Amino acid sequence: MKSSTAGSLSPEFVLLGLLTRGPAHGYELHQKLTLDLCQIWNLSQSQVYNILSRLEGKGFIRGRIQEQEKLPARRMLEITEAGQGHFNNWMFAPSRLSVRAIRIELTTRLYFAQDAEPGLADEIITRQITETKIGLERLILTRSSIPEDQIFNHLGLDLRIRQLGSILDWLDSCRAKISSDPTLDRSI
Q1: Count of CB atoms within 10 A of residue 56's CB?
Q2: Rg, the chain, Cα only
Q3: What SS3 state is found at 34?
Q4: For strand 61-68 and strand 24-25, is the pairing parallel, antiparallel, or unpaired?
Q5: What is the pLDDT of residue 116?
Q6: What is the pTM of this model?
Q7: pLDDT exceeds cutoff 60 at 183
Q8: What is the per-residue pLDDT across 117-173, written as a single tens digit (0 to 9) for each?
C-alpha cells in the first residue's frame, strides 16, 4: 500500500470521519472536533463550514434543511457513498514517516478506528510499525553509505533515525493505551 501524500493531512478527513457516525450539522461537528481532537486539529467554526462546503461541492457529503420549532432551520449533513469511499481509502493507508503526519493523521485514524470495529486500531498501529521499521532500516543503510567526513549529512540522518525510533516507542504506547481502555465512547 502506498504511503499517504501531504493532502492526507487535510482536515476534510476528520469531518468525513465524524459524518460516518451519522448525520450532523456543522456546529455539532465543530463542537465534537473541539471536544475530542483539539490537541490534534485546531479549526475555527468558519474553517469547518468552508471545508464542509468544499466537501459538498466534491459530492462527498450532502446537506438537507431541517426545520426546527421556534428555532431557525439548520442544515443536516450526511456522508455520500463517494465520501465514504474517499474516507475509507484514507483510513487504511499508512501515514508518511514524519512526526507531523504521525501526530495528526495517524492519531486521527486511531480515533476513528477505535470504535469502527474491534482490532482495527491495532491493525493500523501494526501496519504503521511495519512501515516505520522499513523506513528506519532504509535510513540506517543510507547513513552507512555516506563517508564519515560528511558530518552534516550524518547529523541530519541521525536526527531522522532518532525520530523514527521515538515514533516506534510512541506506537507501542498507543497500542497499550488503546487496548487498555475498551470503554472509549466516540458517539456524536
Answers
A1: 16
A2: 20
A3: helix
A4: unpaired
A5: 81
A6: 0.82
A7: no
A8: 878 999 999 999 999 999 999 999 999 999 999 999 999 999 999 999 999 999 999
What are the φ and ψ backbone dihedral angles of 64, each rounded to 5 degrees?
A: -140, 150
The full 3-state SS of 100-148, as one line of letters, equals HHHHHHHHHHHHHHHHHCCCHHHHHHHHHHHHHHHHHHHHHHHHHCCCC
Task: Select from 139, 144, 136, 184 the least CA-distant residue to 157.
Answer: 139
Choose among 2, 12, 164, 170: nearest CA to 93: 2
Q: 110 is written with which cell numbers?
A: 486511531
| Residue found by looking up cell 470495529 in the block | 117
Residue in this structure with the C-alpha cell 552534516, named with its chain if needed: 152
Please tell me the distance from the alpha carbon of residue 87 to that of residue 107, in angstroms, as a whole number.
15
175 vs 122: CA distance, rounded Å: 6
Rounded Cα gap, residues 83 and 61, in angstroms: 6
Length of the chain: 188
Is the four-CA dihedral 20, 34, 52, 49 of positive or negative sign?
positive
Query: Residue 136 and residue 113: Cα distance in Å, rounded?
Result: 25
Residue in this structure with the C-alpha cell 514524519, named with its chain if needed: 98
